[in-house]
Design a protein that fits this description.
About 65% of the residues lie in helices and about 0% in strands. The two termini are about 35 Å apart.
Length: about 230
């Protein structure tokens, strides 16, 4: 049972980031441990590809590691990390747009997005719905997809999603509305069983209760593999 003194002695994310800037070799590794799962979930669902998602998280964490001294505390550290991760995902999505594979190949890759433990636990119908939703998400423009992933799949409030995406709340709302409108014709058949009226809400808050595995590992970056930024 933790005591008040134990809780008080636990460093906050901002404390850890400050320690990292001062040269603590383990502080950034602890930040990564705390937030890697959710960053990975956002990247995976935004990009729909494990290798691309792993590389995006790698890019984001390297950027955060190097830019820690620029953090001014105007938002939570987790919001700052998510913004960097989403930007890395959007950059990769734009670069990949010119080299799309065939729809069949896209579907085969997307079927790998369910974690093994999720596949074992979910009914077959739920797995099929999840896969088809991910396929449909890939048809959206990157900005709409990122907004829907944050709000409808990860369960972020619109205001926090706006902070992560660095746009006004009205822009997040309009992107979500346009994205849902584009998804509706693609997923209406999935709602024949009387499911949720929100076509993109099937995964709302799932990531908060599901541990996702580490990324493939930032290549040569101790900040993720070994913690603390050791080379």
């Amino acid at each position: 049972m933790s005591t008040d003194s134990d809780e008080a002695s636990t460093p906050t994310d901002a404390d850890l980031l400050a320690l990292h800037v001062k040269g603590d070799p383990d502080a950034f590794g602890e930040i990564v441990r705390r937030h890697r799962d959710r960053l990975w979930a956002v990247a995976l669902r935004t990009l729909g590809d494990r290798e691309e998602a792993a590389d995006a998280v790698q890019d984001a964490l390297v950027s955060a590691y190097r830019a820690a001294h620029t953090f001014r505390g105007q938002s939570a550290v987790t919001t700052w990390l998510h913004r960097i991760t989403v930007n890395a995902c959007l950059d990769r999505a734009r670069k990949a747009a010119s080299r799309r594979t065939s729809p069949v190949a896209e579907t085969e890759r997307l079927e790998q997005l369910l974690e093994p433990e999720e596949s074992a636990a979910l009914p077959a119908e739920r797995q099929d719905l999840h896969r088809e939703l991910l396929v449909a998400l890939r048809t959206l423009p990157e900005e709409q997809r990122a907004a829907l992933v944050l709000v409808d799949m990860q369960g972020y409030p619109v205001a926090e999603a706006a902070t992560i995406l660095d746009v006004p709340t009205g822009t997040v709302k309009s992107r979500c509305a346009r994205g849902r409108a584009r998804l509706l014709p693609l997923v209406t058949h999935l709602r024949a069983d009387g499911g949720d009226s929100n076509p993109a809400s099937g995964g709302r808050n799932r990531a908060q209760g599901t541990s996702v595995p580490p990324t493939a590992g930032p290549k040569g970056t101790g900040a993720v593999k070994g913690g603390g930024g050791r080379a």
